[in-house]
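Quick start: what a row looks like.
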Amino acid sequence: MKGLSQIQVLRFSFGTLLGLCLLLHALSSCDFLHVIEHHRNASIAALWCFTLTVLLYIRSRPRRVFMVDYSCFKPDFDQKASYEVCEYFVRRSQRFSTVSEEFMRGIYLKSGLGDETYVPPFIFNHDYEAKLSSAIEEAEQGMFGAITDLLAKTNVPVSEIDHLIVTSGVFAVTPSLSSRIVNRFGMKESIRTFNLNGMGCSSGVASIDLAGRILRNRRKASYALVVVTESISQNWYFGDNRSMLVTNCIFRLGTAAVLLTNRKSESVKLELIDSLRTHHGADDKAYRAAIQEEDERGTVGFSLTKDLIRVAGEGLRAHLRVFAPRVLPYSQLLAYVYAAAKSKLLVSGTAAKPYVPDFTSAFEHICIHTGGKAVIENIARVLKLNDDVTEPSRMTLHRFGNTSSSLVFYEYAYFEAKKRVKKGDKVWMLAFGTGFKVCSLVWKAMHDSNLDQSNPWSDCIHRYPVKAW
């Protein structure tokens, strides 16, 4: 009954139980055959209704959704941004004050980023001005590269793709990014396209949720291509507002392409078994925790306020109140109920430590939001996760930086590169977004993982884990 809500499961179970009780009662009656014989038409009508109900239930049941495969774009070697490259760019641009240069240096050195992250091509130009063409070049480079690799791996013809969802946290252009993909790969006229913008780092997880909902309700076997990208070229901030300067230090280049289907086959990689999105934007501080705006001089930047870490923690706790009962084993739920009852019975004025369920009992692998060192540490504190659980997130931040909405796929690629995913394992992807949003995906592995050459970690996984901070 995968894909059904708890209410649907309860209704179906109750109806089945009631039907069995009535059937057993009827069979136990010595007059059962006599009743059928004298009410033949009514019996045939009842059997017909029962059969029709079963058929309608089977037909209306949501279909299962699977990930065929995915691809994470890895730029060329000459786009790597070491600490020296970043410092050289900042100083030669002569657009930052000495105080701002020192501030960014301090942030970068304790950010957890390594010397092999990637930056847009405009960084290496001489005019240091990110024009619209620079942003389009960056987006197309990532999208086209990831899609080309994905189609080569899956051998799925472009003509079989029925849905295309493209998401970018902050970048929007006309014609849309989806139109550029349709044009580049010659997709069919009947393809349904969607563009998601302005949702920040959660848009990758949100777009998978949207694709899953579309495919579950399609009676026909279909493919959906999800492209998760970002363009940071035009969001590089040249000013002195410290909350905006932070983005220059942690955001880096990255794109992922994911192919989903509602048709099971031996080649599918993961099954999407649950998803949840919660929006906390009704609170003003949560809404403004991460926001694009102008500074006091009119320079546009992306501001990460001091409230961001607190807002992320509060949003995560609210998200877990809905998410936990859906995924945790009964032993953890009972332990939570016991702890809650115990705290109520304590003498007034006695402080009780809140009980935090063990989410590693529900998931073998957790891809937590790789938003930055402080974000990773805060999630680990809220969920009481040890360094072994947060290792993939910390290593992804070190190797690729904050790639925005595609970050959870680079993180999952780390698990695969380490060959840690086994058939039947459950994977939790958790991402935060502007607004403020918290989004979760739950996957089930259909096969043991292996390291292929297109994995973005293939040339460096032997060096990881490293001491990031």
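That is the whole record. The chain has a mean pLDDT of 87. DSSP finds 15 helices and 13 strands in the chain.
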